[in-house]
Structure prediction request, 115 residues.
Amino acid sequence: VQLVESGGGLVQPGGSLRLSCAASGFTFSRWSMSWYRQAPGKEREFVAHIISGGGSTKYADSVKGRFTISRDNAKNTVYLQMNSLKPEDTAVYYCNAWGLGPDYWGQGTQVTVSS
Prediction:
């Protein structure tokens, strides 16, 4: 099982990034997917999830209206479109698969929002 995040980087406040998480080794379409993040000195926190099947989504209040989670089951990939980025969005972002057994986690991708 592998979850590989990409798309992180340095962006100015107000900018945008799109994170991707490529999954392999399990039946991606049957698993729900989430994004979490961890800022320096803080605990890992929930960002967004998208349910398998119907694709229902949920967001943390801090990112609602700015971030959009989506998935492409044909590509075994989940995305996180991040707009109107703020310095407080700076963190390592992790992809997570859950629902049918023990959770799977990716290695994370760094997002830094700074001028």
The two ends are 37 Å apart (CA to CA). The chain has a mean pLDDT of 96. The chain is about 0% helix and 50% strand.
